[in-house]
Amino acid sequence: MRYNRIILLITIIFISSIYSFGNNQIVKTGIEVLKDNNFDILQGKRVGLITNPTGVDSELRSTIDILFEAKNVNLVALFGPEHGVRGDVYAGDKVQSSTDTKTGLPIYSIYGKNRKPTKEMLSNIDVLVYDIQDIGCRSYTFISTMGLAMIASAESDIEFIVLDRPNPLGGEKIEGNLVEDQFISFVSQFKIPYLYAQTPGELALMLNEENMLGIKCKLKVVKMQGWKRDMIWADTKLQWVPASPHIPNSQTAIYYPTTGILGELGYLNIGVGYPLPFQTIGAPWINGDSLADILNSKKLPGVLFRPIYYKPFYSTYQGELCGGIEIHITDYEKCRLTEIQFIVMEVLNDMYPEKATFKNANTKRFSMFDKVCGTDEIRIKFSKNHKWSDIKDYFSKDEQTYFNISKKYYLYEK
After folding, report:
1. What's the whole-number average pLDDT of the chain?
2. Residue 170 burial class via C-beta count within 10 angstroms: exposed 0-12, middle 13-18, buried 19 and up
3. What letter does residue 203 receive in the DSSP assignment?
4. Quick one: average pLDDT of 383-409?
C-alpha cells in the first residue's frame, strides 16, 4: 500500500513537471489574444499590417503568415518600417516598396521617401494593424512609425489596431526630459521622455487621447494577458527576436539607453562592432583599469564596471585595440540607465582633459545628438564643464509630470 502511494506521488510530480514545462508562457501578446478571439475584430474588413520579424506568436510564427492563413481574415497589404517586414534591410537603409515573396502581398515602404502610409496606400484598406516589438526607448524608430501611421489612419478615416507587446524595460522606469518643439524628428517624434515606461498600446492611447498627434484616429488596443508593470523581458518567458541587428537579445535592450546617446557622436566605441553592443565604452587612448576603478569608486546605484580591452570588428575604431569598461547592471530597479554615459564622459574628461568629448567629437554629429536628446540644452550645458551635475536637474525635470499624465492610460497593473 505504501509502495503504491509512493508510485502515485512520483507520477503526480512527473505529470505536473511536464505540464509546467509545456505551459511556462506567462505573457500572451496581442497577436495571441487576437488568435484566441478568432480574429473577431478583423472579420469582414480589408486588413493592412505594419510589422517586422519581431511580430511573432509564441511559436515564432510571423503575424504576416498568421493573418494571411486565417480563413476569416482578408490581409491585403503589408507596410515596411525600418529593416523591412521580413528583416532583410540593414539599419538606416531605405526600404523599397515591393512584393512579399511568401504571400504575394504588396509591401508599401514607410521607411524611405514616405515615413507614413499615403492615402493611396490606404485606399483599399479598412483597418491598419500594428504589431512590432519595441525596446522602450524614445530614439528607437518603431514608435515613430506607429504614431505617424495613426495620423495617416485618421486622415483616411480607417481603424487603427495595436497588437500590444511588453516594454522590455518594464513599465516603471521613466528617464529623461521631454522633446522640445524644434528637435522633433524621427528619432524623437513625440514629446515623451527618453525612457517612457509604456507598452506600444499604452503609448498609442496617450498619443491619441492627449491630442499629441494633432488628429484623433479610431484606435483599438488588443491587450496582452499576464503582463505586469514590474516585468522586464526575462520575466515574461517570451522568446526574443532581434529588434534590429544591434539588439540581438533582450539584455541588449536594457543596455541600449546606457550608451546610445553617446554613440551618436561617433567619438567613443560603445560595443557596436563587437559582441557586446551598447554594453561597453572604449577608445585606444583609454586605460580601462583606471577608468573602471574611478567609476566603481563613485558607487553608482545598481551598476558595476569591469575593465575591458577589445578590437571592434567594424564601426568606431575598427581594428584598433580599445581600452574601456564593460557595464554590468546589478540592480535594475535602482539603476538610472541613461545617466551612466554622461558620468563616464565626466570621468574621461577628468582623466584626459585634452580628450574631452565635446572638444573632440565631430561637430557634424552634434545635430543628431541633440535630436536624440530632444534638446540642445544637454549638450550646451554639459560642454561647459563636462559635469553630470550641470545637466542632472534639466535631464530629469519632466519625469514626474510625464508619469502623472501617462499613468491615466496604463492598461496593466504592477
Report:
1. 93
2. buried
3. H
4. 98
Nearest CA-CA partner of 278 in 320, 248, 303, 241:
248
User: In this predicted structure, what is the pLDDT of residue 14?
Assistant: 38
Helix axes 366-373, 250-263, angle to 10 degrees: 130
- Nearest residue to 140 (alpha-carbon basis) of 57, 273, 253: 253
The predicted-structure confidence for 252-267, as pLDDT tens digits, reads as follows 999 999 999 999 999 9
CB 382 within 8 A of CB 365: no
pLDDT for the residue numbered 24: 66
Dihedral pair phi/psi, residue 21, rounded to 5°: -65, -40
Strand order in the sheet with 280-283: 280-283, 322-329, 303-310
10 Å CB burial of residue 124 (0-12, 13-18, 19+) is exposed
User: Which residues, including other chains, have CB under 8 Å from residue 249's CB and lie 6 or more apart?
Assistant: 240, 242
In 3-state terms, what secondary structure has residue 181?
Answer: helix
φ, ψ for residue 323 (rounded to 5)?
-100, 155
C-alpha grid cell for residue 247?
539588439
Give which of 336, 325, 306 is closest to 268, Cα–Cα. Answer: 325
Q: pLDDT tens, 321-339?
A: 999 999 999 999 999 999 9
**What global pTM score does this model have?**
0.92
